[in-house]
């Protein structure tokens, strides 16, 4: 079983550096860093520090969105990170949180499938050293190319949820970062793998990474942390994914989701039904979590992200899963 | 006088780091990381240079808010400050019309854009105390920067041009003169150097061209440059070296620096390709040109 550590740019870079170094010592395969679009820290800067201070662990940007960065910056940032990390960088792309993207750009992302395809195709050409002129949905380039040729082009992963984007991932992505409620995950992986086969690829060519809220529960109080995570996750889930969440009292849950979406996470967490925590998070004691991951593994998931928020003591949690990692 | 140097991501980052170390040992106090379309992203270079050096101030020199969202510029410096403390400067500029057009960006409302970004950086708690420099060559921008920024990176290194630019400076702002630099001879680097000088000359402000009656020569350089034939630039070499570069022997460079100091320039920024030339950097160290 492959483990990865997950973080976002919301967390102090110094704390994350310490955790990633420990994860590396514990033979974790990857460190995935999510870009908080409205957060203060910048993802390429953040990952550069991790690239310089680590040696073996794979470093994934999970994810950024081409709707908020010119493609030239994604290309030049990737080139720099691939070099600094000695070819350990993985570029994760997605549409990003729609409200955040809208707040930053003033526009709702449109033509997302075509735009994602365009972005991946352009980046792939640029990483091969091609000079491009292109007038497209998101990118307009005139005789643009990268000055440095990459020794190893980075893998491109998708962090997406909708069926059309999942199908596109099956067609062109090197890997997919999945997140969402349990039953949704099982459907999503099927869509990706089916699309892969339809495009003459083996599902084994695609790396299936699972990133759900993760809480090691050592006592009842830790469940409060799980409820908070569920509140944050619920706010970000699109309606078609939300429908996968099985709850005893849908009306009450709708109320909780509204609270979350209005940013009132604390109140939402207080009212969050426990079954939702179980649906959208990997929460439990060590044995329960391993058992859950084993179940996911049977469905085809390859890599499992530990954290955030980990539990009471993130370093302890990271060390705890050391024994499960493949050496 | 303070001394800065421009580094860029057109060479392996390991070399950039080695050059930065060598430059700091020679007495360089500021590293300005340039951002040119097609080169490696400046933010990872800021991290690598901060890690490799000890005390020098590290800044963007420059980045354009037309290309980089201001939230990302603020975020980069927030991250850097968290890691390496108070040793940063933010260099902003408009970015060249041609390079921006290559990546689909049209420059519109230059002053408004820079003003908005400076406001954002000043109103963000973590970046509010990081000095902001603005790269300038035209009268309006110089005046704006003198009223709104902590420093000006003047895109001129010829004392006559600097003196011309100073008439538009309205406050007691920190002034840096920034231009292509190289200690000559440097056979390996000279062709490239000429090209860099030609790029800078091509973008010289129109008012300056008019006032110094160099419009025809600049047009000739633009044509030679547009032909993509560096050999055509050869006949402009002396003009470029004299007017748009800080180059020559160590004593010739020192002479120009003395003239700039007399004009009130507080920082000399050795522009590209000095930061790429091991030969120039070693010479800088051996001659104690700037450490003395």
Descriptive key words:
heterodimer, A: 327 residues, alpha/beta, 8-stranded parallel beta barrel, 3-stranded parallel β-sheet, 14 helices, 13 strands, B: 292 residues, 9 strands
Describe this structure in words.
The complex is a heterodimer of chains A (327) and B (292). Chain A is of the alpha/beta class and 327 residues long. Chain A is built from 14 helices and 13 strands. Chain A has an eight-stranded parallel β-barrel with strand order 1-2-3-4-7-8-9-12, surrounded by five helices. Chain A has a three-stranded parallel β-sheet with strand order 11-10-13, with helices on both faces. In chain A, helix 8 packs across helix 10 (250-261) and helix 10 packs antiparallel against helix 11. The longest helix of chain A is centred in the middle third of the chain and has 17 residues, at 182-198. The mean pLDDT of chain A is 95. With 292 residues, chain B is of the alpha/beta class. Chain B contains 13 helices and nine strands. An eight-stranded parallel barrel of chain B has the order 1-2-3-4-5-6-7-9, surrounded by seven helices. In chain B, strand 2, helix 2 (42-52) and strand 3 form a beta-alpha-beta unit. The longest helix of chain B has 15 residues, at 70-84. Chain B is globular, with a radius of gyration of 18 Å. The model of chain B has no long low-confidence stretch (mean pLDDT 95). The A-B interface holds A 9, 12-14, 38-49, 51-52, 68-73, 76-77, 79-81, 83-84, 104, 139-148 and B 9-10, 12-13, 37-41, 43-48, 51, 67-69, 71-76, 78-80, 82-83, 101-105, 124, 126.
Q: How does the helix and strand content of chain B classify structurally?
A: alpha/beta
DSSP E strands of chain B, number: 9
Shape of chain A: globular
Give the total of beta strands of chain A. Answer: 13
**Mean pLDDT value of chain A:** 95
Could you tell me the strand content of chain A as a percent range?
Answer: 15-25%
The DSSP helix count of chain A reads 14
């Amino acid at each position: 079983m492959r483990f990865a550590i997950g973080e976002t740019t919301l967390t102090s870079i110094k704390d994350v550096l310490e955790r990633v170094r420990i994860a590396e010592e514990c033979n974790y395969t990857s460190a995935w860093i999510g870009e908080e679009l409205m957060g203060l820290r910048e993802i390429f800067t953040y990952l550069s520090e991790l690239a310089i201070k680590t040696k073996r662990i794979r470093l994934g940007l999970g994810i950024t969105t081409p709707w908020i960065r010119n493609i030239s910056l994604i290309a030049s940032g990737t080139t720099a990170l691939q070099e600094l990390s000695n070819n350990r960088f993985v570029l994760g792309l997605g549409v990003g949180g729609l409200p955040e993207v809208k707040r930053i750009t003033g526009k709702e992302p449109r033509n997302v499938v075509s735009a994602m395809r365009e972005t991946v195709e352009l980046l792939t050409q640029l990483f091969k050293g091609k000079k491009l002129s292109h007038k497209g949905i998101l990118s307009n380039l005139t005789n643009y190319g990268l000055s440095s040729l990459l020794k190893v082009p980075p893998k491109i992963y998708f962090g997406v949820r909708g069926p059309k984007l999942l199908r596109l991932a099956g067609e062109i992505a090197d890997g997919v970062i999945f997140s969402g409620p349990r039953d949704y995950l099982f459907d999503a992986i099927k869509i990706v793998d089916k699309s892969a086969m339809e495009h003459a690829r083996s599902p084994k060519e695609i790396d299936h990474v699972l990133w759900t809220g993760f809480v090691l529960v050592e006592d009842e109080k830790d469940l409060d942390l799980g409820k908070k995570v569920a509140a944050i996750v619920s706010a970000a889930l699109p309606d078609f994914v939300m429908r996968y969440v099985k709850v005893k009292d849908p009306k009450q849950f709708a109320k909780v989701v509204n609270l979350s979406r209005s940013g009132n996470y604390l109140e939402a967490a207080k009212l969050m039904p426990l079954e939702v925590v179980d649906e959208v998070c990997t929460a439990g004691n060590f044995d329960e979590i391993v058992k859950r991951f084993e179940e996911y593994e049977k469905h085809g998931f390859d890599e499992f992200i530990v954290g955030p928020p980990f539990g009471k003591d993130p370093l302890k949690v990271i060390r705890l899963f050391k024994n499960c990692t493949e050496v | 006088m303070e001394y800065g140097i421009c580094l860029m991501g057109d060479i392996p980052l390991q070399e950039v780091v080695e050059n930065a170390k060598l430059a700091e040992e020679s007495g360089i106090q500021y590293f300005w990381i340039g951002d040119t379309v097609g080169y490696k992203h400046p933010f990872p270079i800021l991290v690598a240079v901060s890690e490799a050096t000890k005390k020098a101030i590290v800044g963007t020199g420059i980045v354009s808010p037309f290309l980089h969202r201001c939230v990302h510029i603020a975020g980069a410096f927030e991250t850097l400050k968290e890691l390496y403390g108070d040793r940063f400067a933010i260099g902003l500029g408009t970015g060249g019309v041609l390079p921006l057009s290559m990546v689909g960006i049209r420059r519109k409302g230059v002053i408004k854009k820079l003003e908005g970004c400076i406001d954002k950086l000043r109103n963000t708690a973590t970046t509010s105390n990081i000095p902001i420099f603005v790269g300038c060559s035209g009268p309006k921008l110089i005046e704006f920067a003198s009223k709104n920024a902590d420093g000006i990176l003047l895109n001129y290194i010829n004392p006559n041009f600097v003196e011309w630019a100073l008439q538009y400076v309205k406050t007691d702002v920190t002034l840096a003169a920034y231009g292509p630099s190289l200690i000559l001879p440097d056979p390996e680097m000279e062709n490239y150097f000429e090209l860099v000088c030609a790029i800078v000359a091509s973008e010289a402000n129109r008012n300056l061209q008019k006032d110094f009656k160099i419009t025809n020569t600049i047009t000739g350089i633009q044509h030679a440059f547009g032909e993509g034939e560096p050999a055509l630039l050869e006949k402009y070499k002396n003009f470029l070296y004299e007017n748009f570069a800080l180059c020559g022997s160590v004593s010739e460079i020192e002479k120009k620096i003395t003239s700039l100091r007399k004009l009130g320039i507080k920082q000399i920024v050795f522009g590209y390709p000095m930061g790429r030339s091991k030969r120039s950097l070693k010479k800088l160290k051996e001659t104690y040109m700037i450490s003395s």
